[in-house]
Structures are given as C-alpha cells and as structure tokens.
C-alpha cells in the first residue's frame, strides 16, 4: 500500500461541512516540540506553548538535542503529527560539544525522508534558544511555523 498524504482527512471530515478547505484551516494542528533540556527550561517552554492558541502542542524533553534519533522523529509523523519543531542550544554552546550540530544533521535527514514519503520538508522546523528571556522569540517562531504548516497541510491535501 502506497502512502497517500492526507489519507486521514476524509475520515476526519466525515459528517461535517462539505467545505473541506474550511475544516482544514479550522482544525487544530498536532505539533511535537523536541527540546534540549540544557538550553530551555520546561516552564519557559510551557509559557511558549500557552501562547499558541488551539493547536495541540506536545513537548518532548531531550538530555541533548543531539540525542534525537531519526526513528523517533519519523514516529511522530507516523502517529499523525502535522509538524515537528526542534529547539537546540546555540551553535558552539552545546554542553556535549557537538550535540546541536548532530541535531541539525539529523533534522536535515528527517526533512529528506519527509520529502521522499510525499510530505514536504516544511513540516520540520529547527530553531535555537539563546538566552533566558527569549520565550517570546520562541513562541513567535512556533506561531509562524504553525501558520506556514497550516498552509502546507492544506496545499498538500488539495494537491497544490
């Protein structure tokens, strides 16, 4: 059986308005946020997630962003996630020397695999958390990502 992007949408919209475009735009997105526990505090991330409106955000703490494995990222999409955000520490400031560099390489690999499966690479976003007090910046990036992601999901369903 070949993978078809948006295969779940007809079941999601069954019994609802016939305007699929409206349902796609109005439904909450499911976004996973993977973050380095050394660079951002759980409470700061919770504040960021609280500013996102009705999207379903699931946070996953990592001891280091470099510990993120491809299989876990792909599993998030397999279980129905619309997108994923990876928050790393700034380049050159990783406590584990090259963890953030490994994370960026793995994110590139995930993007390539998403492209191969028919999903777009825009479903994955990587950012870094510089210093305390930048919760608003992270919240803004996540909000901008969810806006782009909503358009991407809608376009993919309609074959655009």
Task: Give a brief description.
The chain has about 160 residues and is of the alpha/beta class. The chain has helices spanning about 10-15, 20-25, 40-50, 70-80, 100-115, 135-155, and strands spanning about 30-35, 55-60, 85-90, 125-130.
Overview of the structural elements:
There is one protein chain. With 160 residues, the chain is α/β, with parallel strands linked by helices. It has one domain: 3-Layer(aba) Sandwich (Rossmann fold). Helices cover 44% and strands 16% of the residues. The protein has helices at residues 9-13, 20-26, 42-50, 70-78, 99-116, 135-157, and strands spanning 30-36, 56-62, 83-88, 124-128. A 4-stranded parallel sheet has the order 2-1-3-4, with helices on both faces. Strand 3 (83-88), helix 5 and strand 4 form a beta-alpha-beta unit. Helix 3 (42-50) crosses helix 6 (135-157). The two termini are 23 Å apart.
Helix-strand string:
HHEHEHEHEH
**In this structure, how is the largest beta sheet organized?**
4 strands, parallel
Q: Spatial order of the strands in the main sheet?
A: 2-1-3-4
Rg over CA atoms, rounded to whole Å, is 16 Å
Low-pLDDT regions: 1-22
| CATH architecture assignment name | 3-Layer(aba) Sandwich
* Gap from first CA to last CA: 23 Å
How many domain regions?
1
Number of helical segments with 4 or more residues? 6
Helix content: 40-55%
Q: For the residues shown, what is the average pLDDT?
A: 76
Shape: globular
CATH class: Alpha Beta
Portion in beta strands: 15-25%
What is the name of the CATH superfamily?
A: Lumazine/riboflavin synthase
**Structural class by secondary-structure content:** alpha/beta
Total count of strands: 4
The CATH topology is given as Rossmann fold
